[in-house]
Amino acid sequence: MSSSIIGKLEALHPLPEDDKRLLHAVVGRGRTLKVGEHIVREGDHTDIVHVMLEGQGYRYKTLPDGKRQIIGYLVPGDFCDLYSFLLDKMDHGMAARTVCQVAELTEEHILMLTARPALARALWWSELVNAAILREWLVNMGRRTPSARVAHLLCELLVRLQVVGHASAHGFKLELSQAELADTVGLTTVSVNRALQRLRGAGLIRQTSREITIPDVAALKRAAQFDPRYLHFRQAREDGGCV
Amino acid sequence: MSSSIIGKLEALHPLPEDDKRLLHAVVGRGRTLKVGEHIVREGDHTDIVHVMLEGQGYRYKTLPDGKRQIIGYLVPGDFCDLYSFLLDKMDHGMAARTVCQVAELTEEHILMLTARPALARALWWSELVNAAILREWLVNMGRRTPSARVAHLLCELLVRLQVVGHASAHGFKLELSQAELADTVGLTTVSVNRALQRLRGAGLIRQTSREITIPDVAALKRAAQFDPRYLHFRQAREDGGCV
DNA sequence: CGACCGATTGACTTGATTCAATTTCGGTGG
DNA sequence: CCACCGAAATTGAATCAAGTCAATCGGTCG
User: Which keywords accompany this UniProt record (chains A, B) (predicted)?
Assistant: First the structure.
């Protein structure tokens, strides 16, 4: 269960065995959430840190007129709200998109973890990556075509899921509705549908019921202008990007 | 010079007098940057932390096809890259939009500052606000109309500049070209121009050469669906928003 | 089998972009 | 002080792409 966390953090910074054992002990096996269940609501205060162990979730904001914008995906290994005991109120909500296992850590747990220099550094780094993802998403929405936006998102998910062992070299389980995709990339479902069609038509992706296959990852990355360096994973840092 | 930093950090968390004195001593008066000069380039490594003392800058990313997306504004009091010595390479660039004074702090300076609990907390908090701004911008680009996007940006700048004493109750110096606005909100200059016209037509803003006036701030906030709580400033936390 | 949800489609509308002037404005130099 | 220059703002017309609306298709689950 906690292997995804270790996978992710080690992608950022190597960890001593002791730290991994501590992580394992602190995290436990987590609570099960049903599809659609909230992890934290907008405006809530919580002093618990949630960690996604299995399954996927998303961060979102709701507009006064009811529209929704998804502002992040939570994949296994992600710390959802490392800073929750600092904030009085969450400025966004988080919900389970699939059935999830979520660990709930207290401030004491976090202090135990951050007392270890390597862990503290890896956690700090993971927050930097969260911010980097937001910046890249901004570029995505601001300056890319619909198909490139969708392609970029798929590339990002591929890499993030690979790091935690939830994606193969050429694809992953896609449990995203087109409506969610639309609320993520700032388009309508119809446009997302057509963007996916274009990607399929160009042979860049292949979709079966709930699985997505990327026959030529480099080609999709090119189409998406995807440069994995923003994720700051160690491999990506060494490859030096794909654009 | 360092009063803007103190203003900003105190808007997040109260600081003891000693901490303010330390800040003042550490920051000094900064280096002067010319318009357009880079603070840090994309891909650079730096182990200096830059702090905006006077003037304004922006964060940006460049796309392979030459397009640019502005992903943040730097106003007086902002720490530009608090995490720079962690990162090997900046995933985005930062440049001066006006003549600026920028302080350059070393890792030792930062360690001195973060050794003080109140300062550490305020700095940590300022990073949370940076992330919150990115999330709000994502909502802006994804789900708001052109005029609301522009209006929202203006509201945000108003509040952020007010906190550091660079805006009055009803306006501020606007040194933003329409091209920069366009690269910020994901539109073309023409669309931005028309969005501004609509806002002016509705009496929500008034522009003279390099100054923007907002006759009825609440009205503009309403039009922009601007809820200042995401900035997590202490006043805003107490008001409880305007939507 | 029928209800339902999500994906898909087509026709139409709306609104943003593109392109190419034209105007405005601040600053410059005569 | 005024004419001129260049950058930025503004405009209009034509184009094109995304949104809207509404219907249909496909599969899943009671």
Answer: DNA-binding, Transcription, Transcription regulation
